[in-house]
């Protein structure tokens, strides 16, 4: 799948992608509510035999308007693109969002981006999508613009889960902040996943018999500190069960920088420099400070066995979950 960064090129969109169905939104998390919009776009594209694209915006608008309080991104751009590819999209356009873009009129956005650059034949978005200066562009404006410029508009109603609750990125963030990765998975439709480069550490885990793959998440990540049962995907696509600690390692040191440390079951090898992903299946316990390394190792052995038991019976929640989190 191709990812276009609109600020890096003023060249026309490749001809084979013009005239497609364009799903528009931020899609942070690509949760089940987003998937209802995205699946509608894919269905229309398949029926018409034309490409399906996603138009989204980077960075997240809150990072522009509130830079001192950036939003906890459930799926940073590279991971979001991977999930969108797994759903079946041909391309993602990551349009630059800045204060100048926020001042553009809805008419300008529709004319220059949707019509002239993308050549959209159909635009699919949520029923509450607003855009342009002061969010002046809404569903009614978009429908009128579609008639004016010759593209269809499909608006998708809010998605509600089995409990009739509206699925939202905000709700999922709160669940992750509380460590409830199981409930978050129910809203996402797949298990919460992070992706980062494996970096070097102090190698204490190796000395204790638990070598770990260490990753540093984005500073705004607000996942609850603690121990989790996880699946670890290597850069080559192979997946291993594991147990991960996220936090500041209170027994050993506290440098103020949270670290994700994963002990990967049934694996030995050099992972340094690889971009790998970790999918969270269960919260086992909070971070604890132990009185020395021996009780720490005893607890780590218990964590390992508990994680193995939890992961032994897990099944994919969906086809998307299988592609992202399983082998």
**What's the overall average pLDDT, rounded?**
89
The top-level CATH class of the largest domain is Alpha Beta
How many helical stretches? Answer: 11
Largest sheet geometry: 6 strands, parallel
Question: Strands of the largest sheet, in order across it?
Answer: 1-4-3-2-5-6
Measured as a percent range, the helix fraction is 25-40%
Q: How many strand units? A: 12
Question: What's the N-to-C terminus distance?
Answer: 20 Å
Q: What share of residues are in beta strands?
A: 15-25%
**Principal-axes shape call:** elongated
Counting structural domains, the number is 2
Query: Which CATH architecture of the largest domain is right?
Result: 3-Layer(aba) Sandwich
CATH topology of the largest domain: Rossmann fold
CATH homologous superfamily (4th level) name of the largest domain: HUPs
* Element order: H for helix, E for strand: EEHEHHEHHEHEHHEHEEEEEHH
What Rg, in angstroms, do the CA atoms define?
22 Å
Uncertain regions spanning at least 5 consecutive residues:
none
């Amino acid at each position: 799948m191709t990812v276009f960064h609109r600020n890096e090129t003023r060249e026309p969109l490749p001809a084979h992608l013009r005239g497609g169905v364009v799903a528009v939104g931020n899609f942070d998390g690509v949760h089940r509510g987003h998937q209802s919009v995205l699946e509608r776009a894919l269905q229309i594209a398949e029926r018409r035999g034309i490409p399906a694209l996603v138009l989204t915006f980077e960075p997240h608008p809150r990072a522009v308007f509130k830079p001192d309080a950036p939003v906890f991104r459930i799926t940073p751009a590279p991971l979001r693109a991977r999930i969108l590819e797994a759903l079946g999209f041909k391309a993602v356009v990551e349009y630059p969002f800045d204060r100048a873009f926020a001042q553009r009129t809805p008419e300008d956005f529709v004319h220059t981006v949707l019509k002239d650059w993308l050549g959209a034949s159909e635009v699919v978005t949520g029923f509450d999508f607003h855009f342009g200066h002061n969010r002046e562009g809404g569903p009614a404006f978009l429908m009128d613009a579609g008639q004016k410029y010759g593209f269809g508009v499909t608006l998708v109603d809010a998605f509600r889960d089995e409990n009739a609750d509206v699925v939202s990125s905000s709700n999922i963030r709160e669940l992750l902040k509380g460590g409830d990765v199981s409930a978050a998975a129910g809203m996402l439709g797949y298990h919460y996943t992070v992706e980062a480069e494996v970096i070097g550490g102090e190698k204490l885990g190796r000395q204790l018999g638990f070598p770990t793959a260490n990753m540093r998440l984005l500073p705004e990540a607000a996942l609850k500190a603690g121990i989790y049962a996880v699946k670890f995907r290597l850069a080559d696509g192979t997946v291993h069960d594991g147990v991960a600690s996220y936090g500041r390692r209170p027994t050993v040191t506290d440098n103020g920088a949270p670290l994700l440390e994963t002990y990967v079951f049934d694996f030995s090898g050099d992972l340094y420099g690889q971009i790998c992903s970790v999918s969270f299946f269960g919260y086992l316990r909070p971070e604890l400070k132990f009185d020395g390394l021996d009780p720490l190792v005893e607890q780590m052995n218990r964590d390992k066995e508990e994680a193995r038991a939890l992961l032994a019976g897990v099944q994919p929640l969906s086809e998307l979950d299988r592609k992202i989190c399983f082998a």
